[in-house]
Amino acid sequence: MPDVRLASPQGKWILLTTILGSSMAMLDSTVVNVALPRIGEDLDADLAALQWTVNAYMLTLAGLILLGGSLGDRYGRRRIFVIGVVWFAAASLLCGLAPNAGVLIAARALQGVGGALLTPGSLALIQASFHPDDRGRAVGLWSGFGGIGAAVGPFLGGWLVDGPGWRWVFLLNVPLALLCAPIAVRHVPESGGGGKHGRFDVLGAVLGALSLALVTYALIEAPEGGLVVAVTAVTGVAAGIAFVVVEKRRPDPMMPLDIFASRQFTAVNLVTLCVYAALGGFFFLAALQLQVVSGYSALGAGTALLPTTALMLLLSARSGALADRIGPRIPLTVGPLLCAAGMLLMLRVGPDASYVADVLPAVLVLGFGLVTLVAPLTATVLASVDVSRAGLASGINNAAARAAGLIAVAALPLLTGMGQEAYRSPDAFDEAFDQAMALCAGLLAAGAVVAFATVRRLPPDCTRPECRTHGGVMAPPLEGVRSGRRL
Hints:
Elements: H1 9-28, H2 31-43, H3 47-75, H4 77-97, H5 101-129, H6 132-162, H7 167-171, H8 173-187, H9 202-221, H10 227-249, H11 263-293, H12 298-304, H13 306-326, H14 329-345, H15 355-383, H16 390-415, H17 426-454
Helix pairs in contact: 1-5, 1-6, 1-8, 2-3, 2-6, 2-11, 2-12, 3-4, 3-5, 3-9, 3-16, 4-5, 4-8, 5-6, 6-12, 6-13, 9-10, 9-16, 11-12, 11-15, 11-16, 11-17, 13-15, 14-15, 14-17, 15-16
């Protein structure tokens, strides 16, 4: 049984290193969007390159995050966490030094691999290290400080882009890793490893990531047309089908398909796909819209989006408590509709947009929508499966959210006719942005309909989330493996 107490020096060191590690990955999920216009200008990159700058990271992170958790269970959570931190820092250094868009995109893919190793490990280390009496408070502090990091991220990213330059958005990870990794090695006890484990589902992980990569490539390159794009699209779909077949037949699959026998679990993942596809598209395009069309600086654009994360950080725990009382159906219906209203309000954001009159109302409504839906969504995911599969269910839901954002970033420019040089033309980008916001609002409305039609009240003895505070906007919070008991 873990026995580290939160008030002890070791407990404080464990909390610090896990917060630093998770914050590195969370920051890079949000701050890079603010830097995109300056990256494009500096590296002479077209819109497709900017899409890949975002998607290369999300691709490897979404495709490998389940495998990353399994590696920690087998070889030791601290070991895999430290490897992930060092890997992430090395890839960040390569991003910061990238001489061209191709190197930056490759480095971003490597960054995602590091994120997939360290992200599951940060919470798992807390759950495996702290005494049961202190674990809930430790998780609360970890998620709260992580939320603060997520809230500060766009502001910090904007300040770096306008000041030292966009490369420091990535280079900042290096000193954080130099602080985080030695603390983990010295103060965090090893856990996991040494037990009996099934074979690694490497084939499943490869097929899943390959399918996402090929479909993403086909969507981004579709405006160019040609045989290569068509073959890539067909091959991506075939790889996805092969992934399903492999997962169905393997004795120890990365994603056991029987978990979807729960109608509630399947339904809430459909809601997740709708919601986080819309959010992924929004945060990619909104940072560009504010800078390209409205004339905001990078700092101004990052600060403009800050209220969304701040609201989540301040109110997500209360939203979870309300959902416990009234059930998840209403919050999961109302939340997406509020987010849709926020995106429709973004249609007012055009040339010379006023922050107070145009931008702030939209991000506040969007923020209240996220506050309303994220905590009940996580609770419903965990309650839909047996307690022994809570960690797996959370990982699948988190990966689904990231994959949805990945596809949205690839597909929205195609669906709105956004050309490769559109982000250099305020008029062209503004027109396509309005169409994209309408599509995102439609996705959110579809998610609300699915939730209203399928989500039911949770049983009173179901598994409850440990992460009550959440500030991330790109994916729901990860929950770790439970020790055979309901929380």
